[in-house]
């Protein structure tokens, strides 16, 4: 029965989807790919026409040509119910909004060129809605959707920051008379107000237009129900849009000089654009969405469109115009856009699979979807930031790192701003140096936050060891920095260079004051983390026994790493101040490399204990501060009544506050296992082990294993010897 209804719409979680054989499905995929390739060609052709035709006239011709063709084939007035006055008003608003989106999209095309426009503006609604869901809702779809959103954002950033600015600036140069229209003048002024280049403003404009387009399509689906279908709505929308733009086109034709030498030569290009961009894609997507899943259409369509947008790769260099030249940013963003579209358009698993609970009297399978609906979903980005900030401020260590990070960032940006303002290379370089130091603080802050994440099925021990990794990485960074400073200092000792000390003193004093605040904030971490200071005076009884120093006295490698970073910066500021004074007063240029040598040596020596301790933890060494207590505890375990022996004792430090251990006990047959486990747990807990696993093995187990492994022969002999002991009433032992 289950196999019979395996293709039922309920079993797949796809309500209303018509199953299509694979052979016919391939036809629709090919049709979709062809339509996307033709649309890419149409966008490239549109860019060329927009160089001579005003954008408003261009959109008017597209809307009018599309309306004429659809009125002939679709017959929106003769088919369907009569449209009421209220619906005509909605159609007018719909058409105005459609014109605005078209204006923004095609204006972005003139700024960024067809290649960047196809990468930014031609995303499926499924992809954009999934992206916005991850960013602004609490049901974003899980970690995979979050990765897709991150890839999408990185792709936009690559296109914004790492594009070829020189070539794009040439492309975006305003042609003569381009500002004749008040609309284009307003748009250029708005982009200039942002303080970015025209092509970067075009990137922002296309992203905003993309979000508006998705909202417009959502409203269109609702209005199409009232009008009588999406095809009828599309035909009427193009007609009303052309009527809205007609007065504007008449005014432009009367007030501006046309650059078109012959309108008849543009009939064929306009016809190709109307067919490929306005008509073919609309109908092909409607058919493919009806026959296939919308996510699958989005995936195939995105790959076909983006690859056809990169068609200029195969052209000879002399045939590639300036606006179509590829850059590293475009290639990277294209790859990321394809990956993000594939991830964001993939159907979410949540709610698609239910539990089969039975069958109806008619034989329809019944599923329960409540289990999936009640599962925890990934948080939206704003809520994640809010919750993370709350966790950071709730705990002392992370709060101290966060406050010092804010102070450090404020001083960094002040340095950078003042350096750019005064054209001081020293201030700018020191600002970027402090910005690099902030990365160590961010690493420490993130580690302090992760240590409080709850354990999962995969990470069953939790994330406490992240602080060890953070301290280890910070220590390695400091050792590398100290090494390079030492090498450079030796070179400068042999040949001291001239140093401009004009801006060194104020910069060093400011950095020293900031770092002294960090020293005061993190000095407790260094003293508490040192092995010589178990910090038993705090009296934090985490485990309900008197030896709390064993559990709290472990090193916090993360805080020690942050402290050493701040200490290194403080020593650097002190060294710069001392060397500046010596150079100004006595002209000793060698003072700067000597101070650097001294500071590099101090940093290197101070980092070695941190690296050593972190390596011991990562290599699962028995905690040295617990080693003596553990040996005494194991002797006590061996003396417990009923315990024959123990084997495989393993004890290691998992994190600053967790010492874990495992042990195998061999016990007599007539003892109660739980009593033995409780006694052993209490003894090892007093020795500092607060996460213990005890495996109990009785004599019958030895006898069974003696035939399988020679490792149990000694234990078996000991057991037999214990059984041969005879006790008299007065306690005398007879062998």
TrEMBL record:
Keyword Zinc found: yes
Annotated Cation efflux protein transmembrane domain residues: 401-619
GO molecular function, one term: zinc ion transmembrane transporter activity
GO CC, any one term: ER to Golgi transport vesicle membrane
Keywords: Antiport, Cytoplasmic vesicle, Golgi apparatus, Ion transport, Membrane, Metal-binding, Transmembrane, Transmembrane helix, Transport, Zinc, Zinc transport
InterPro entries: Cation_efflux, Cation_efflux_TM, Cation_efflux_TMD_sf, Msc2-like
Keyword Metal-binding in record: yes
Membrane topology: Multi-pass membrane protein
GO biological process terms on file: intracellular zinc ion homeostasis; zinc ion import into Golgi lumen
Location of the protein in the cell: Cytoplasmic vesicle, COPII-coated vesicle membrane; Cytoplasmic vesicle, Secretory vesicle membrane; Golgi apparatus, Golgi stack membrane; Golgi apparatus, trans-Golgi network membrane
Pfam families linked to this entry: Cation_efflux
Ranges that cross the membrane: 55-73, 94-111, 148-165, 185-212, 233-254, 266-284, 296-313, 325-344, 401-420, 432-450, 471-491, 503-522, 562-583, 589-611
Catalysed conversion reaction: Zn(2+)(in) + 2 H(+)(out) = Zn(2+)(out) + 2 H(+)(in)
Region of interest (Disordered), residue spans: 533-552
Entry function: Functions as a zinc transporter.
Protein family membership: Belongs to the cation diffusion facilitator (CDF) transporter (TC 2.A.4) family. SLC30A subfamily.
Subunit structure comment from the entry: Heterodimer with SLC30A6/ZNT6; form a functional zinc ion transmembrane transporter.
Protein name: Zinc transporter
Gene of this entry: slc30a5
